[in-house]
């Protein structure tokens, strides 16, 4: 067996070796994880910055984050539904409905921003409750339920914004989400605290496992992870803290407020999925619903809750979108938002077959989608070309997912 | 080990609509022994096991556990008594690792957070207690395991909870020769640890290799429950196919009551 036979004082080199070998084995066995998204991101960034140097400018870099934020947040919620092997096609327009609710309450009813935001989020949760109940209790396939909701919500948005006018948002707090920045010093402090906290958690965890004689990640691997996080986060904060104003009158620098918002959501959902029994049960239902049922897990409740989380996150995505556009119109959450969100999740490594995926996938995949859209925009391609390319990338990602699944089956994983 | 039965069924009847599947079945299981439950397709083995596991309620009859009458109305009740069933399709989640599968639905928590370390330790201890040495890492996904290893994990999952009776539904049906031997060895070890084991099998070699007692069902009736040492291979086959064999079996007075 594993634990008893392992010598406690393992040779450091061999420990790292085993760790690396284990990782390589997993990748070869079809568990690609974040690799395709990371490689795709690097290649895309290199290509675009060679073809259009302005891609790398501080202004455009900050743009990428605000552009991709709404899609990444919606994708993060979608991952819960995808983990169960279900789909939510209405997430895009659900975000539109919530954004419209927000706009109506803020602009027409004059509600304070916090009440309007709360109502929008509750709207999202209720939408999820209805969709989830229809899928879990009535047994209608999620594809059909959410396709119907897709159409219906499109109508709801139209009704809410009174047939095609657009509602502008003037509330300072809501506008700040996508348009204002964190002061540069605060950005650095938050980054330092975050990296230190990550390092501490990793270190304490490894120590505790080693003390109990369990296999722990070697210190060198932990150090490498912490260093990678510090370098990536540090570089991003540095870029975002550069002056990106084109005029000398107003200063424009700092991390956009959506970025810490996404990071917090990412941490929360990662914690839920990886460290709580609820998260474990989500994976179990996605992997083998019958086994989950026999283990005493309430499968219906898990299904419904996943749809609630998905639509709830869509409401936050809608709020971000409304903030970025300064307004809500009948197309908010429409056109390509849903496909981009599904694409982001799948490109990030979440499987459409259920049982595999992480909250981080939404952010990585969201970055890829944002880079494609942004870079092709800079190259001056038309919307038509952008759609074709993004569609192809989604198909490619789904192909990689299906192939890696085949490979897993072939190698017995 | 010759104390009384830990689990005893008397006069069990079970019908599905107009079809009576179990007729007046008596069945007893002793701690420290492997009881093989044999019978042809449709003889009622699965129904009997599901009645024991609380999945099907019994129509009439007595269910005694440790000498006391109990009412088992659902899988939870059975699990609380210490009765665990390992089904043929194993009920494992391929996308979870060994520890996660063993604790599925009964995770250890400290506060809100899963206590992974304790779970891993307990899983390691259980597997070591069963002398399982074929698993490379407790953190590998179940999908990467061989059939025999998956069976081992499913069995370990069943014994993790201080269960007293473990029922195995055709554990070797899909396995190769070497893996079958491994699993049978494990079955024998469970009994040697003092558990009562029920082994459902079609394979006479397996049955005679590990069991202490053999219970043969024939068309929903208990044809005979005998010590394995007292019968031959062909007698058991006769019991399965015709419900009687010489002195043994239905209609000879010895059968069900032994």
Automatic annotation (TrEMBL), chain A:
It comes from Microbispora triticiradicis. Coiled coil: none annotated. InterPro entries: ABC_transp_permease. The chain crosses the membrane at residues 32-52, 64-84, 91-108, 114-136, 143-161, 181-201, 213-240, 252-273, 304-325, 337-355, 362-381. One of its GO terms (molecular function) is transmembrane transporter activity. Its main location: membrane. This is Xylose transport system permease protein XylH. One of its GO terms (cellular component) is plasma membrane. Pfam families: BPD_transp_2 (PF02653). PANTHER family: ABC TRANSPORTER PERMEASE PROTEIN YPHD-RELATED-RELATED, XYLOSE TRANSPORT SYSTEM PERMEASE PROTEIN XYLH. Part of the binding-protein-dependent transport system for D-xylose. Probably responsible for the translocation of the substrate across the membrane. Keywords: Cell inner membrane, Cell membrane, Membrane, Sugar transport, Transmembrane, Transmembrane helix, Transport. The keyword Zinc does not apply. It is found in: Cell membrane. It is a multi-pass membrane protein.
UniProtKB/TrEMBL annotation, chain B:
Transmembrane segments: none annotated. Keywords: ATP-binding, Nucleotide-binding. Gene3D superfamilies: P-loop containing nucleotide triphosphate hydrolases. SMART domains: AAA. Residues 7-244 form the ABC transporter domain. It holds the Pfam family ABC_tran. InterPro entries: AAA+_ATPase, ABC_carbohydrate_import_ATPase, ABC_transporter-like_ATP-bd, P-loop_NTPase. GO terms for molecular function: ATP binding; ATP hydrolysis activity. PROSITE patterns: ABC_TRANSPORTER_2 (PS50893). This is Sugar ABC transporter ATP-binding protein. It comes from Microbispora triticiradicis.
């Amino acid at each position: 067996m594993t634990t008893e036979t392992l010598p406690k004082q393992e040779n450091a080199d061999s420990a790292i070796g085993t760790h690396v070998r284990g990782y390589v084995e997993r990748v070869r066995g079809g568990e690609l994880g974040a690799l395709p998204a990371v490689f795709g991101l690097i290649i895309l960034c290199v290509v675009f910055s060679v073809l259009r140097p302005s891609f790398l400018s501080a202004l455009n870099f900050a743009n990428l984050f605000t552009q991709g934020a709404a899609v990444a947040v919606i994708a993060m919620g979608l991952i819960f539904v995808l983990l169960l092997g279900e789909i939510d096609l209405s997430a895009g327009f659900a975000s539109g409905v919530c954004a419209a609710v927000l706009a109506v309450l803020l602009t027409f009813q004059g509600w304070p921003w916090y009440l309007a935001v709360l109502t929008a989020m509750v709207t999202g949760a209720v939408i999820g409750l209805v969709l989830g109940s229809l899928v879990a209790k009535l047994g209608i396939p999620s594809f059909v339920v959410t396709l119907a909701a897709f159409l219906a919500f499109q109508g709801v948005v139209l009704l809410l914004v009174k047939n095609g006018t657009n509602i502008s948002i003037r509330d300072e707090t809501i506008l700040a989400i996508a348009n204002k920045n964190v002061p540069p010093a605060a950005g650095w402090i938050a980054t330092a605290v975050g990296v230190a906290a990550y390092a501490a958690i990793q270190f304490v965890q490894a120590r505790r496992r080693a003390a109990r004689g369990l296999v722990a990640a070697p210190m060198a691997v932990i150090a490498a992870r912490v260093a990678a996080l510090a370098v990536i986060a540090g570089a991003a904060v540095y870029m975002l803290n550069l002056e990106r104003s084109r005029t000398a009158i107003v200063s424009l620098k700092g991390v956009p407020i959506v970025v810490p918002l996404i990071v917090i959501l990412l941490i929360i959902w990662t914690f839920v999925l990886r460290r709580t029994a609820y998260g474990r049960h989500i994976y179990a239902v996605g992997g083998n619903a019958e086994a989950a049922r026999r283990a005493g897990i309430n499968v219906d409740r898990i299904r419904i809750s996943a749809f609630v989380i998905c639509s709830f996150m869509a409401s936050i995505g809608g709020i971000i979108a409304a903030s970025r556009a300064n307004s809500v119109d009948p197309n908010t959450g429409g056109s390509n938002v849903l496909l981009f969100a599904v694409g982001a999740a799948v490109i990030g490594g979440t499987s459409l077959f259920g049982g595999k995926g992480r909250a981080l996938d939404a952010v990585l995949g969201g970055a890829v989608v944002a880079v494609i859209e942004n870079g092709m925009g800079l190259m001056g391609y038309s919307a038509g070309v952008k759609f074709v390319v993004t569609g192809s990338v989604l198909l490619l990602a789904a192909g990689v997912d299906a192939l890696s699944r085949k490979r897993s089956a072939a190698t017995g994983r | 080990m010759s104390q009384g039965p830990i689990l005893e069924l008397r006069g069990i009847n079970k019908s599905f609509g107009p079809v009576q599947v179990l007729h007046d079945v008596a069945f007893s299981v002793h701690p420290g022994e492997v009881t093989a439950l044999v019978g042809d397709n449709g003889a009622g083995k699965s129904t009997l096991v599901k009645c024991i596991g609380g999945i099907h309620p019994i129509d009439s009859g007595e269910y005694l556990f440790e000498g006391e009458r109990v009412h088992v109305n659902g899988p939870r009740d059975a699990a609380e008594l210490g009765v665990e069933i390992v089904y043929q399709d194993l009920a494992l989640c391929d996308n979870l690792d060994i520890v996660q599968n063993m604790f599925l639905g009964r995770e250890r928590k400290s506060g809100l957070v899963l206590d992974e370390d304790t779970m891993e330790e307990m899983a390691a201890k259980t597997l070591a207690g069963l002398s399982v040495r074929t698993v490379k890492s407790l953190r590998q996904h179940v999908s990467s395991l061989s059939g025999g290893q998956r069976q081992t994990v499913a069995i370990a999952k069943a014994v993790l909870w201080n269960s007293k009776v473990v029922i195995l539904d055709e554990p070797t049906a899909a396995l190769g020769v070497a893996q079958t031997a491994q699993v049978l060895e494990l079955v024998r070890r469970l009994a040697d640890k003092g558990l009562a084991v029920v082994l459902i099998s079609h394979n006479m070699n397996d049955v005679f290799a590990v069991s202490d007692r053999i219970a043969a069902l024939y068309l929903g009736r208990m044809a005979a429950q005998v010590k394995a040492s007292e019968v031959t291979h062909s007698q058991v086959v006769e019991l399965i196919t015709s419900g009687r064999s010489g002195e043994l079996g239905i209609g000879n007075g010895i059968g069900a009551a032994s």
